[in-house]
């Protein structure tokens, strides 16, 4: 398992490395938590060793994989200072590097480490910033300098509070990097400068407003770069005039960016629409983006304060942050900046030209009126000239569009040359079809047209009308779709033409023929390629264009009349929901749900437009057909992402249709899907529908509830119990009427919280309580007191995960109980205040802060806490001083506001009066008595049993007490002999005492010296010969010891072989390797004879299909199981036939059998009954 993930991390493919890192993150945060502390430590030690080898490797791909693994682990157990220090050292050793991508990834990882480092952050950031500044200020070393600017940028983004303390030395040294001969270093330095300017803007004070020293400093540095007399401070470094000017333009660009917020918003919007649609980038940031499935995880108040996203915050370098100081400063220097920038419009240097095309739109957006008055004509002349140069053409179109948005109607007089150039780049109307296909148009051309339409409005209808046909002839693209959407909105008179043209294009791509309007004769709509069948067309369709066509069809505004073209909607459902390409199926699901929306029944859309009230019977029929096909995909598609997408697309608007019996049966199949997130969403949907069709839903839902409660009570797997708790929470939220009669057994199960010795069980029970309280407050209110009595003692649990879950549950209880929580305040507040001051675990502090806010808000306990706990104010203010996460800082401000205003004089009296945090003294004696009671051990509690059973129990208990006492090790030999004698005397009656003696026996083997270990192993063999197969519960540990102490040619080897012999004799036929996969299939095959597995069909068939395709050794067993399931399901199996038919193995196998039949002749067909049955089952 580990080796597979390591191979993925070392892969040359970015996608494979990312997937391996995600799998590792999921495994460590979920499955590994079920392991024992020893197993967890062993796994992490081995993993850290492999990570060290990867980051130390000479292979760049292995280094990238090591960084990805570090980032995946950063957010898990983030209070572990040892782990953080280790990761910091690993990353530190990667800088500088010859590979720029490795440096970028390492610097991003360092930023994430600073973000989640807790108490480790302050020293870490200070050290790294000072080291980076030393590299900048020292003699020029290209690698170190580049690494320094990357690290400074990430630390400024992720730890701004600590970085701000080093702001002055940063400004003193950053100019060295801005004046570096290498362009990449100059650009990296300015990115770090941008992050610093954001920090300044967020921390502007009156003093800074009066004395903007840093803006003055960097502006003066930029001006020096425009002077020919500038000399570099570094020896041996030669800067060209263009390098100096480029560095200065970079600084000017950042100053204008910080001063102009409107221009930045327009630029971001344009780039999001036209620049990023076709880019697929695998980066560290992807690790922090939860899959769409996570949208339906339970959302509670305390979870809003916590984010499991390790690397969320992609795009932080584009944070829009307006600085009033910088705006005022640049207002005074606007004219000078414009003149300095336009001075370089004639230069031939490509870097400077690109900077001009970037900074000119920002200047126009900063001061539109002044820019129009003096510089617009000169700027537009330059940009129109740049449109004729291929290298700058794309950036020039982008710049013109942004300037148009900034100056609005003033761009009108300059539109002529721009549209002339657009016409040149678009295909002419009279060109042939082949020539049109070959034309490729830059996306920025469409962006410029769209921006011009926003600026001028309907006045450009003539130009747009002439361009419309050539634009549509180019072919579908994301940029064209976005442009047409803008044009349809800004130029209403052309909306119908745009809709018809686009719909014709989409119909041609998706159906290979133009759309046929209702009532038109069929002969009026010729097929473009009549010789091609729909299947061959489907095979030859380009995946990207099909996905884009489907997305456009679903998102473009066709005025809600698209269902009039019912054939197009049906075609999408029939053809693309069954595509072999995942991306096409995914987009087809989304498109179908959007196309059906205008024709949904108004009973579930009370505020729908008027056209919803007159839904035709044909539209209703289309909705019914397409919805049925979507639900079939939702339970039969082999890809879990597609199945989830179906359920997430069918929201409340579809409830009237989903509540029909035939659709509900599909939802109940999804309720037993193999993926938990799908089951989770299915139960929410069914619970929501229970009010619309209770007669059909309630009986099956009641069975599901009993299944969940059984899983909660008896499952030995913590993850299953956690998932059951979440399912129960959803059920309570969506079907409270169903839950009400079952409140007593639910709370009975929760008593595990009070008595369980397993931290994971306590944690899950507390989380379940929180979910129940959050989702069903009225149902839970009568049980508040017993629940709180169970919760509060667990706030002192040693397991931090238990404490976090308990705190969260108490916070939810406070929201429900209101003023009733007042009687618990004296007990809760001191504990919470202690946790607020515990810096060892950030998550616990955050949840404690949120819980305190919940208590204060619910009980009205204001001002008084300041008097009773004088250091509370200081603790809360420390959150604002040191905490990096904005969410936590906001929560601290919220709690301060809830607590109310405090009289400074009274607060000073409280502090000097020595009133310290108290409240625990009243409980001390009680706690001690409880501790004493728990340590006093009952010898045996056996009731009125016979003496022949009582005496052995007393003897075994006494002997085990001696074995557990290491100070009595000299007596252990006699104790072992005595236990063996007792077992021989009792025979099979001794099985009762195995649970008492085996843990101690095995522990002695681990801890004793080698000579005594051999004796204990001999006696263990004797015990196994007595108890026979009853030893099976301890075989894992026994074989673990055998593996540990198996040493070739050692004296103990013979003893171990004899022990194995005794195990073989005791177990008989059970002593054999067990294939879990095969056993699972055979068990399902056997169960199908006596149990109804209909509800679990989806959960069984999908794994069987994967087994048939990927495990040749298990195909026979899998086919047997599939056939048994087919015979049980009967007609209901027809739903899965299309999915089964797609199996490559079954297709090859069926073809082989049919060919064998043809060779054998018709006379032998009747004898091949087994083959006939198998083919019928598979078909």
From TrEMBL:
Q: What is this protein called?
A: Serine/threonine-protein kinase TOR
Q: Which Pfam families match?
A: mTOR_dom (PF11865)
Q: Which top class of enzyme applies to this chain?
A: transferase
Read off the InterPro entries from this record.
ARM-like (IPR011989), ARM-type_fold (IPR016024), DDR_Repair_Kinase (IPR050517), mTOR_dom (IPR024585)
Write out the ranges of the annotated region (Disordered).
513-533
**GO cellular component term of the entry, any:** TORC1 complex
In short, the EC number is 2.7.11.1
Catalyses which reaction? L-threonyl-[protein] + ATP = O-phospho-L-threonyl-[protein] + ADP + H(+)
Q: Any keyword Kinase?
A: yes
Q: Name one GO biological process term.
A: TORC1 signaling
Q: Name one GO molecular function term.
A: protein serine/threonine kinase activity
In this chain, composition skew of type Low complexity spans 520-533
Which segments constitute the Serine/threonine-protein kinase mTOR domain?
862-1028
- Supply the alphabetized keyword list: ATP-binding, Kinase, Nucleotide-binding, Serine/threonine-protein kinase, Transferase
